[in-house]
Specification:
Strand content: 5-15%
Shape: globular
Number of helices: 12
Structural class: alpha/beta
Length: 306
């Protein structure tokens, strides 16, 4: 079971990530989308399904959003209703910056702590006013009748800029985090630098390392690449050139993601860092969704079997 693997700090955790459908869909259309997602995820048989809590993030960069923002269903709500037939643990993202104390406690009290895990995220951009700070949200998870298995976000690009992401992860662990999930990875060097400092920080305190889940996604078009860059995902110059000039950008992106993970995995094994995967598709195009399933199988084959 996923929660047991996290508690035992195992390597090889496999997640598949997706975003809930947009709000306001007709019930029949929502049911059809959920049915397709259930079939796809069941065929992949991951350890758990990760559901994102999408935000508009207007202050993320000075550039306009490449795709319009459409509000989506709340992850826990979608998991409990439309995806109830999928017998898999869920890893549910929750943006706490949109909640006050009472709202967060209501969300926590309705959480299925016996089967699901959560990942708390803070304000989508600096200067966001209001809402509950992450530093206050994590301790509140321990107030309920059952302690939630909580995770945190790890961003290698932020570590490359500021050099302190490992300290952020240490602070999140002290606040109750049991695992970490990275932003989508295309830059192996940035991820390895973060993992190196991560391992050293925990070793200095003689603390065991929580599992570190590395996220990967296909990139099927230059428009998708533009959106990924807007999200803060870094593409090394050589890799961006490979994608831009490939006659089949989608297939090439899957090959490069598999190569990137193999490089990071070899490094993590040398350092005895427990790593796993989360494969997602940031696009709703069928070709990119199918490619995410292929990528999941390729990355899974590199991980140890239970």
């Amino acid at each position: 079971m996923l929660l047991d693997k996290i508690r035992r700090r195992e390597s090889g955790i496999r997640l598949y990530g997706l975003s809930p459908p947009k709000r306001g869909l007709e019930p029949a259309k929502l049911e059809a989308i959920a049915a397709r997602q259930i079939e796809r995820v069941a065929d992949l048989a991951p350890d758990g399904l990760l559901l994102y809590d999408l935000q508009e993030e207007p202050g993320r960069t000075g550039a306009p959003r490449p795709f319009p923002f459409l509000p989506t269903l709340e992850p826990a709500e979608y998991a409990r209703s439309a995806l109830a037939a999928l017998p898999l643990p869920k890893v549910l993202y929750k943006c706490v910056a949109n909640l006050d104390l009472a709202g967060f406690r209501a969300w926590r009290n309705a959480f299925r702590a016996d089967s699901d895990a959560c990942v708390l995220v803070g304000a989508p951009a600096a200067g966001h006013a209001g809402g509950l700070p992450l530093s206050e949200a994590y301790p509140l998870l321990a107030e309920g009748t059952a302690r939630l298995v909580a995770g945190g976000v790890a961003i290698a690009e932020r570590h490359a800029r500021k050099g302190d992401e490992h300290e952020r992860l240490w602070a999140k662990r002290a606040a109750g985090c049991s695992f970490f999930v990275s932003q989508t990875v295309f830059n192996a060097d940035a991820a390895k630098s973060l993992l190196s400092d991560y391992a050293l920080r925990f070793a200095a305190a003689s603390e065991p390392l929580p599992p570190f889940i590395l996220s990967f996604s296909p990139c099927g078009s230059l428009k998708t690449m533009e959106f990924m860059r807007w999200l803060g995902i870094a593409f090394p110059r050589w890799l961006e050139n490979e994608l831009r000039h490939s006659p089949d950008i989608l297939t090439r992106s899957v090959d490069l993601a598999a190569h990137t993970f193999a490089e990071i995995l070899a490094f993590a094994r040398e350092k005895a860092i427990p790593v796993g995967i989360n494969v997602e598709s940031v696009s709703i195009r069928k070709e990119e969704i199918d490619a995410s399933c292929e990528l999941f199988h390729r990355l899974s084959s590199l991980l140890p079997r239970p």
